[in-house]
Automatic annotation (TrEMBL):
Pfam families cross-referenced by the UniProt entry: RCC1_2
One annotated GO molecular function: guanyl-nucleotide exchange factor activity
Swiss-Prot/TrEMBL RCC repeat ranges: 139-177, 178-216, 217-255, 256-294
Gene3D superfamilies, sorted: Regulator of chromosome condensation 1/beta-lactamase-inhibitor protein II
PANTHER family given in the database record: REGULATOR OF CHROMOSOME CONDENSATION
GO cellular component, one term: cytoplasm
Domain of life assignment: Eukaryota
Protein name stated in the entry: Uncharacterized protein
Amino acid sequence: MESAAHRLRDDAIAVWREWLVVVHKPRRLAIVKERDEHRKRISRANANIAAGPDFSLALRNNGSIANWGVEYLTPLHGTQGDFIMVAAGFNHWLALRRDGNIACWGANNHGQAPRDGIQGDFVVIAAGDFHSLALQRNGSIACWGCNLDGQAPPDGIQGDFVAIAAGATYSLALRRDGSIVCWGQNSFRQVPPDGIQGDSVAIAAGIAHSLALQRDGSIACWGCNLDGQAPPDGIQGDFVAIAAGANHSMALQRDGNIACWGHNEYGEAPPDGIHGDFVAIAAGDYHSLALQRNGTIACWGDNEYGQAPTPEDDELYDEDDYATLSANFPFMTDVHIL
């Protein structure tokens, strides 16, 4: 009787082990893979547009780049190439080619934008004031440019990362497990030495404040909050993308509308938000951009250098900045993930 009971127990254990191998493990791996893919999709939602302090960038459908704003940084006829992501720094900008290499333009006084670009197998780019970051396919991070505050260590950052963000003089990286690593200047506690724990799916960095989009759609904020750009209690909502400007913040809601908070002297962060059917957002110093689902772009905020043209400005000042921009419509709305 005892041996029969043992056999039944052993048979049950064998069935359970087989279930773990045949059913549970593949199912668990599929769940983990889907979570990873979701994090990649969300963290790269804003790949097609970028905003510097006084210039703006957007990918055309053919992979070339439209540039507008400060003339010395933005070639009048745009930039040709097969690009899938853009990033804007203080006075330099980057574009990721489909082959994983990086093109650079603008100031290079700190080595932040080498004329020959950066060769490698990269999947994401980010630009700070005077430094640049690139996420490699293997999950590690390459850094170049100014490193006075430790924001761009020449040897890079090793890890299993899926997203990066560059603030003015600091950097963030999102791990595959949803936690965040921070390095660089920490004058406003925007770079906590122990990082940020949680289940984050996207990150954004401003001059001295940081944002993290959580898997549940809410937003965690830390760092400088002098203009209300990073409320310590975070922002509740059902958001799918985030952007951090100099002293303002934006978040794209699932319904396509945009929430804004923080500095609004130039109308860059209207408290009532921006209504539309948007799929991507970008925040400059004092202006903001949003890409609509139909490929058009909406701009608001400071337009001193033509970085945020509107039809109203064209009519009021007898200009053709928005008309010129709209001639490029529709812009690329598909996000290409390497």
